[in-house]
Amino acid sequence: MEIIAKFLEKNGLVVAFLLVGIIIYVSGIISDKFTNKKIPASAIAILMGLVLAYIGGVYTKGEKGIADIKIFSGFGTMGGSMLRDFAIVSTAMGASFIVMKRTGWVGALSLFLGIVLSFLGGVVVALLGGYTDAISLTTIGAGACTYIVGPVTGAAIGANSDVMALSIAAGVVKAVAVTIGTPFIAKYIGLNNPHTAMVFGGLMGTTSGVTAGLAATDSKLVPYGALTATFYTGLGCLFCPSVLFLLMKMIFG
Amino acid sequence: MIIYGVAILAFCYVIGQLFGEFLGKIIGVDANVGGVGFAMLLLILLSDWFNKKDYLDRNTENGIMFWNQMYIPIVVAMSATQNVRVAVSSGFIAVLAGLVPIVICAITIPLLAKLSKNTQLD
């Protein structure tokens, strides 16, 4: 038993390839037999991934889902930011530059609006939750952008740790909800073409949520959403601790 | 050769991400600004140029397409490593602070998309 565990741990990445292959195979069968292909196999596979992450989290109390269980640590490598970004870049092969150029300025506008609207949404919720100081409001608003913008902003303006934790949690909730929700709301927001995918990426911003959500909806849209979303976290880290924090300070002192 | 394709992809990745890192430094943020986006644009331009010059053979292209096809499996692995426990058990304010922006932005999407379609007609 110990030999097997050690072996699986040592060969993590390859083991992850095998397990993800099995997950996707099973998802294909479920999609075929039980949903009549109405729910795409990739959406089911991603959902199964999230369930595994939950189980791993509950079992180890760690932060990296199933990857915190040693024999499944290869999931951390396979799903880590390096391979993820590498694969995202490869999706640009076959994407249309003309479409990207045409949607350019609306994409930029959607980024700006996405940050400001998410921030304000987060601030309103924080106000309802009883927070009234500019630092906490800004940090929670930043967390409503992405789970990276939250702690970066909080650290920059000196928020205390429970507010930071809250802002990270808000960002994680957003990422998970976008992942699960995108295929279901796609119909209602007209998310079936590259233009809308770029606007979607800019407004939602959470790279993991946007790319996973689009993959579950229509994988052809992934490069367009990813292109705008990849600017979001950086711009969020720029605006939240500066302009938006000053705005909060002016209003709430 | 397959490795050429993988190397082209890696070239775009490295240049794009480095650019994003430097851009972050320049505007004074502790984050990568658009690195993946720059890498994608570079790949589009490069593959376009290679195609015109007829440098891309099937195998070279397969080196890039392999990763293209691996994208969804990687995303599945990524979702299996998300901090779902925190998301599920994070309490009312965190859940609301995560969900409210999604609703606001989802409503905005059709409006902005319309804007981009209108400009398309010009």
Task: Give the helix/strand layout.
The complex is a heterodimer of chains A (253) and B (122).
Chain A: H1 2-10, H2 12-33, H3 41-60, H4 74-78, H5 81-90, H6 97-128, H7 134-143, H8 149-157, H9 161-185, H10 194-204, H11 207-217, H12 222-252
Chain B: H1 2-26, H2 35-53, H3 58-79, H4 84-88, H5 91-121
Helix pairs in contact in B: 1-2, 1-3
Which properties best describe this structure?
heterodimer; A: 253 residues; mainly alpha; 12 helices; B: 122 residues; 2 domains; 84% helix; 0% strand; Malonate transporter MadL (chain B)
| Helix/strand class of chain A | mainly alpha
Radius of gyration of chain B, taken over Cα atoms and rounded to an integer in Å? 20 Å
How much strand of chain B? under 5%
Q: Helix segment count of chain A?
A: 12
How would the global form of chain A be characterised? globular
Helicity level of chain A: over 70%
